[in-house]
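Re: your question from the hallway

Yes, I did run it. Sequences:
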Amino acid sequence: MATRLQLLRYPFSREARQAMQRVARDLGTLINIVEAQEGNYVIREATERVYAALNQEEIVTVNTNDDRDFLIYSTARLIVEKLGDNRLKEYQAEAESKAVNKHLGNESDDFVMHLCRTSFDWDVERVGGSTKKSALPDYLQRFDFQMSFINFLEIAPRFHADEWKLVNRIVERGKVPVRGSELRRLISEKFKILILNSTLSVPTLPRNLSLAVQQIESDLKVKLKRSEPIKFTEKTVTAFPPCITAMHQTALEGKNLSHHARFTLASFLLKIGMSEDEVLGIFKSAPDFVRGLAEYQVRHIASKSGGEGYTPPACRNLRGNGLCPVYQGTTFDPLCEYIVHPLGFYETRAWEISKGVKSHSWYAQKRKKLQSF
Amino acid sequence: MAPDKSVRTKKMLQLMFQEYYRVHHDTIDIPLRIQNREFGLENWDFSWICKKRKEVHEDGKENWVGCGRSGRSFVNLLKCPHCGAPGLQVTRWSRHIGYRTRDHLLNDLVKTVPHSIYHSAAFYSVPVARSMAEKKWQGAEIVFDIDADHLESPCTERHDVWQCTNSACGATGSGSHPDNCPDCDGTTFRALKWICDECLTAAKKDTMKLYDKFLTGHFGLDSDKIQLNYSGHRGYHVRVRDPMVFNLDSNGRMELAHYISGFGMNTSITTDGYLRVKPTGDLRNWQMPSIARKIADTMIEFINSIDVYQGKEPWVKSLKLYREDAIAGLKMNPPILSAKVKKVGPKYWQEIANKSVLLYGVDIDQPVTTDIHRVIRLIGSLNGKTGFAVTELTRDALTDFNPLSDSVVFNKGTIQISIPERGITVPEITIDGDTYGPFNGSIETLPSSTAVFLLCKGMAFIE
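Structure:
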């Protein structure tokens, strides 16, 4: 059903994986092929592909009508796995997923459904099933597909805009109606997750591939050093509430934060007295970092209403947006029960640290419980 | 409190539970893939460890305390019975327990006779491992917990009581405790939460709504793959056992919980005759018709039950009067805010929409649903807080189920108990159709069911 070009564009698809396996049934064979003189171009193109990801440029599909073309994506993955740098992997996942999203925009609805079913085993059909679209109620007519709520929830919680929240959706008989552009976004995000979660056990690489890896490694060091986020002194960081610690950690690891998390972290850091430049430094290593935009956003957060800046959201809001790790049960701090705002936590904990107060038993005596988990 | 009386009571309850478990092998539900579940036992007695540890004093001097011994005790020990060191590690819980087979579990129940027994909703490769990483999570059933405690039923004013813990004050009151004591401004309280037919019925109604409207309705889940039970105390549990849902992560479960509770649902409407969604935030234009439909459906549900609505807002009267017109308008596609509903303008329609969303959902205990490592009571076991059975129910049986009689297991004969004199009076309780109490400072001979309930609640001792 898929054309050669489609196989090259969607390396996660079942057909693409089969095509790849026909050329090289395992990593060992792949290495033998690219080690040979004629296979050299695969390494060259794979290297380009990794650089494109690192430089946040568009990934170009290479189609030379040679079946070894199918090995370029896998070789690019192999290079990144060999380097073992999480931030590079994030960049790769982001760029590969973006390219897929772009290509999907030109595919027919039938092909998109076929891809969902065969690649991910998703339960997707046209909205309203076999009912003609014109016979559907108007509130369904603006949708193109409907998918199982379980498949939807596998990916959608990663997006934080209100429109992706299930509670703002119609769910009928287990099906969530989605637009064509949304389904394409879900597919490309799923691909991103597949890359992030996959691990390859990398065999010993031949000389020509090793050289390429070394080259990327040295360029990577320069690039990532420039964008290394600023670390706080230990003292300030230990006074962070668990939610801010988690977001800060995610930023340091070079992973993407949701819009809401980014806003929370930036406004929190500005409020505790960090400069705009320092705050920008934190977000530098995010795979989708765009300097101009980030600068504008941070300045905007810092300068609201006469320079006082935005206040970060309160605990209640963070809970609702899935940003409170205590509410989710992944961590706990007794102080959280006595505050309703991350800044309140910070104030108290910073005071405790400055006075050397180690025991938290005073909360129960001196303070009122304001929330429980 | 006399410790010997308390110990004697616990030992007797444990014996009664043992007899129950010895006879009732068939009513214990064996969870699917039992060998992959973690079990947690809450015991009648405490296990303690007197850890050997170094203490550093302010003057810099160090000394060793603790003898390293451990043991079990029905009394909550404050210091080591051997070396007298304070600061024992004490717990009533045994976690990371695994059972390979049904018989293994049933035999152990008779042997250990826990106060309460729980198992993980999750499946693990190594359920007995100490850390989550070693356990290796392999998916989990989705669990919902509906607790009368959350529902703020009006009956709590009648049967929940509190007492200020300030020994000089000791003021008492009913309902949930205030933030500050009205007499001494103190902030800590001893609270007693009670149950009655009214709050348990409220929990039951929400459970039916969760099952009918959401799980089998909106989500289209197969009723064969939903397991329902009474918790043995204040609420109900629902487990979704469809393998399709096992791998849903915590974020996905949170979205489900929000959907079911209505948390975060957009209700900003604007009206020009039609009900339209206000174009705010990041809701894209194209989605608005479906959100408008959803808000309209929510409002229909609310207006349909306007007769039982307790609020005193000025629009209530109009809605009661023009209910049919309001609903007919909202049912249209696109929905209309009917002009026939007199004295209700855009501002009131917005208030009605906001109010509707509060009643659209079911008040579930969210962390129970989102936590993929939670443990939940074993169906068929006894709840040590009441002596009632954790009772499995079909959807049909739920409708007429009365937990205060249908879950009673100790119903033979009478038991003589003493209720000590306290600042807090033990409220009345209706079990098996008979009402007893209130009690304070008396010796009573009561039917076993009621006596066991009061003993388990810690409100009485065996005489």
